């Protein structure tokens, strides 16, 4: 751990540089809250709503900032007091061989991060979200959600971790094999997630027959988009925030709508929102993003393979030798700045896709009005920042700010 080790410098930039960039972006974004609401949003955010919104955004930033500072503080103290070296020595002393040792180190670091974050999650849910009237989660649901999450992480994460450690421990072409393995895993998860994983947390029920269901099937038929089933999801059990999504592929495709969306939106608005989602499919946005993600993963695994062979990389964290599992834990810190860069690209692409899907929806329903109204409602109900700072948009926004979307829709 010395400044003459380039890996140490890279890790410092990764950890401290990205933290300060985020902090700076947040400050700029918060400063914009004191601006008057842009004229096109005046009816969405009347003075009274605006005050609520400023209050809500400041409150939730307080939680995320305290969380980040705490995680950073603990990481730096652990790192600079030789914690990683100590953890590795302890894990090896159990005498279980490199793969199990690696998985144990990965699992411990994941658990530590999750449990350090947990009080902040609770503060966010029961402090901030409750105070602003969003939260519907009970303490019981919160706790069972946490343990279900941990069980899933163990069930899916441990075998993947074991496979990755094994590849990099034993294979010359480890990065390539790991890439193929992870690509397969991602495809499997896309298929499994709505069928097996989401039902662990949410209840899916077939939508009752009626005007809305007829309108949805009519739209799907008009746009030549096969839909097998429309489900309603009990999002209201956790939050008042609304959502809609598609699950599955081709003829087995299901549409899932949050019950909260049904409560707050008209049939025309819901149909327009679904036309937007169908637009994503028709414009091939899903495979495009998947390919981008796979490319980024190739870059990441290539770099990882290189880092794992350099004793300097491990020395930067006070670890001796080249233990693979520990390397997977530490690599995240080195990769952070690059991750920000690839994130900028991916998010810019995603925002472009949103404009395309909006344009598709406008054409599909023959008017911009229902989507405009629907988007305004969603934005108001989520108390979204009316005019986020461009730096925050670049770093975090997968959707363009509402003002830009509305302007594009009316063009
Ligand atoms: Zn979209």
Automatic annotation (TrEMBL):
The active site annotation covers: 277, 358 (proton donor)
- What cofactor requirement does the entry state? Zn(2+)
Domain spans labelled CAAX prenyl protease 1 N-terminal: 29-203
Q: Which GO terms describe its molecular function?
A: metal ion binding; metalloendopeptidase activity
Major localization listed first in the record, in broad terms: endoplasmic reticulum
User: For this UniProt entry, which segments traverse the membrane?
Assistant: 6-31, 69-87, 99-118, 149-168, 174-193, 290-308, 314-335
Entry EC number(s): 3.4.24.84
* Membrane topology term: Multi-pass membrane protein
What's in the keyword line of the UniProt record?
A: Endoplasmic reticulum, Hydrolase, Membrane, Metal-binding, Metalloprotease, Protease, Transmembrane, Transmembrane helix, Zinc
| Any GO BP | CAAX-box protein processing
Instruction: Tell me the compartments it is located in.
Output: Endoplasmic reticulum membrane
What does the cofactor field's note say? Binds 1 zinc ion per subunit.
- What InterPro entries does the record point to? CAXX_Prtase_1 (IPR027057), Peptidase_M48 (IPR001915), Peptidase_M48_N (IPR032456)
Question: Which part of the chain is the Peptidase M48 domain?
Answer: 207-410
> Which residues does the annotation say bind Zn(2+)?
276, 280, 354
| UniProt similarity note | Belongs to the peptidase M48 family.
What name goes with this protein? STE24 endopeptidase
Source organism = Prosthecobacter dejongeii
Taxonomy of the source species:
Bacteria, Pseudomonadati, Verrucomicrobiota, Verrucomicrobiia, Verrucomicrobiales
């Amino acid at each position: 751990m010395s400044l003459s080790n380039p890996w140490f410098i890279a890790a410092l930039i990764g950890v401290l540089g990205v933290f300060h960039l985020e902090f700076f972006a947040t400050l700029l974004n918060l400063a914009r809250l004191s601006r008057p609401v842009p004229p096109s949003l005046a009816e969405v955010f009347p003075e009274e709503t605006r005050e609520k919104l400023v209050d809500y955004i400041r409150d939730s930033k307080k939680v995320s900032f305290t969380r980040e500072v705490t995680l950073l503080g603990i990481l730096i103290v652990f790192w600079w007091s030789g914690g990683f070296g100590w953890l590795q020595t302890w894990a090896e002393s159990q005498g279980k061989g490199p793969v199990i040792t690696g998985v144990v180190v990965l699992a411990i670091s994941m658990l530590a991060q999750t449990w350090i974050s947990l009080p902040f999650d609770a503060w966010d849910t029961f402090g901030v979200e409750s105070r602003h009237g969003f939260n519907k989660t009970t303490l019981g649901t919160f706790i069972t959600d946490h343990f279900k999450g941990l069980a899933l992480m163990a069930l899916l994460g441990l075998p993947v971790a074991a496979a990755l450690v094994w590849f990099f421990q034993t294979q010359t072409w480890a990065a390539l094999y790991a890439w193929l393995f992870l690509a397969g895993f991602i495809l499997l998860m896309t298929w499994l997630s709505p069928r097996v994983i989401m039902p662990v947390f949410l209840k899916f029920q077939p939508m009752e027959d009626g005007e809305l269901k007829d309108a949805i099937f009519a739209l799907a038929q008009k746009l030549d988009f096969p839909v097998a089933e429309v489900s309603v999801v009990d999002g209201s059990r956790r939050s008042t925030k609304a959502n809609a999504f598609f699950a599955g592929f081709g003829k087995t495709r299901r549409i899932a709508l949050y019950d909260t969306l049904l409560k707050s939106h008209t049939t025309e608005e819901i149909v327009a929102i679904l036309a937007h989602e169908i637009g994503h499919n028709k414009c091939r946005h899903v495979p495009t993003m998947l390919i981008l993600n796979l490319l980024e993963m190739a870059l990441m695994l290539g770099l990882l393979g290189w880092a794992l062979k350099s004793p300097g990389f491990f020395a930067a964290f006070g670890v001796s030798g080249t233990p693979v599992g520990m390397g997977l834990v530490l690599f995240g810190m080195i990769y952070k700045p690059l991750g920000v860069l690839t994130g900028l690209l991916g998010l810019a692409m995603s925002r472009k896709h949103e404009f395309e899907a909006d344009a598709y929806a406008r054409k599909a329903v023959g008017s911009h009005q229902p989507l405009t109204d629907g988007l305004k409602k969603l934005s108001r109900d989520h108390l979204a920042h009316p005019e986020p700072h461009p730096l925050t948009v670049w770093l975090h926004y997968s959707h363009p700010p509402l003002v830009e979307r509305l302007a594009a829709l009316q063009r």
